[in-house]
Design brief:
three-stranded antiparallel β-sheet, 11 strands, mainly beta
Amino acid sequence: MAHYALLDENNIVVEVITGVEEDSLDPDGNVVDWEEWYGNLKGLTCKRTSYNTNGNQHLLGGTPFRGNYAAIGYTYDPVNDVFFTPKPFDSWTLNTSTWFYDPPTPPVLTEEEKELGWTETWNEETQQWDTHSPS
């Protein structure tokens, strides 16, 4: 099973569908460009996306495909042939290694604190992390 992202005119993902594997033939035995076929069916640009790619890493050790698995609201960058998330805050910058946005400063909680139930949220006004104790 393959997954395909349908894009609007601004290369924003508006739908993700499950479809036919890329190397599958149609019922008459003809080779089909499934990105083109689904795009024509929906009247949108269509790009295949890999369920196993996240942060430009293949989760099963294979070759990463298009940066990240696409989701509604993600952007497709045709120059770099990748999908990336919406920008969460104005101060964050796109990391072109992972295709995720990075905060200006790294999170402050340790793994031990997270395991104890502490959480943190980015405060755009103060440009720092706010920590929250467990309830």
